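Handout for the seminar on molecular recognition.
Each group receives one record of this type.
Step one: identify the two inputs.
Step two: read the structure output and locate the region that could contact nicotinamide-adenine-dinucleotide.
Step three: write two sentences on what you found, then compare them with the reference statements printed after the record.
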Amino acid sequence: MSDTRARHEPMTAVYPDLEGKVAVVTGAARGMGARFTAALAARGVHVVGADINEEQMLTTAREIAAELKGEKPGEVIGTRIDVTKPEDHEAVAQLALERFGRLDFWVNNAGIFPFALAGEITPEQIEATLKVNVEGVLYGAQTAARHMEPGSAIVNMSSVSAVRVRRGRGAYCTSKAAVAHLTESLAVELGDQGIRVNSIAPGYIDTEMTRWVKEDPAALRHALDVVPLHRLGSPEEVVGPLLFLLSDSARYVTGHSIAVDGGSRHV
Ligand SMILES: NC(=O)c1ccc[n+]([C@@H]2O[C@H](COP(=O)([O-])OP(=O)(O)OC[C@H]3O[C@@H](n4cnc5c(N)ncnc54)[C@H](O)[C@@H]3O)[C@@H](O)[C@H]2O)c1
């Protein structure tokens, strides 16, 4: 985390209806989850950031609080979660309710990306990918729905990989296609409770997850080739769609996926 303040200042007045709301963001120790947490807190949202890497999560929460000091931001609490465990989700929800008294938003962001050819992928890799990326989203949504009031919103992190296959990503693509479909199913069912469920489908976003792309000249060349805008996206460039989907501006939007991929789903 660095320079959070500078990167958020231009947008702090956008979506004032978010102020005072309460969010859970999973996988918030780094990458997009950390950026989402900082962006929400900068707009007055109280956030429980949860990650399997508890130490990094606590550090990130402290850094965000320090960077937003003096701006009347929302409070940020860091805690541990293993999203493959339903009981961990419930504990995080209880923490949000105890500390902030309500639960408005749940961002199912935690994910893993194993690179393995279909002929070589191990049962352990397949199981872990489906457990974290798919079951983790389902348990998060189930938990959120138990505690949310009408008007609340869930956002799941899907991927361009839900609609485009590339070599070595069979398990990941399968898991993200499942997230896209799960999002639509959840939207249909949770609509009865007035809860909206949408997904974001990023392309190549510059985080630890895609570090291998930057480190491999051939992979980077290929990535830039298949992105019509010919560059990787930054985590900050995914913030706008997240805020929109959570905000009242999207109150009639559910079961939708917003691609943030520089156009790569078409190539
Ligand atoms: N970076 C990209 O290009 C890209 C593209 C499309 C989709 N996505 C998706 O966006 C989301 C965020 O990606 P990122 O690039 O910020 O990833 P990242 O690897 O930087 O961060 C993922 C976070 O999830 C946490 N996590 C992993 N397993 C967990 C578990 N079992 N329980 C709790 N936390 C766990 C990790 O500790 C990490 O902090 C992921 O779902 C990813 O699949 C990323």
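Reference statements: The longest helix spans residues 123-147. Residues 218 and 224 are 10 Å apart (CA to CA).
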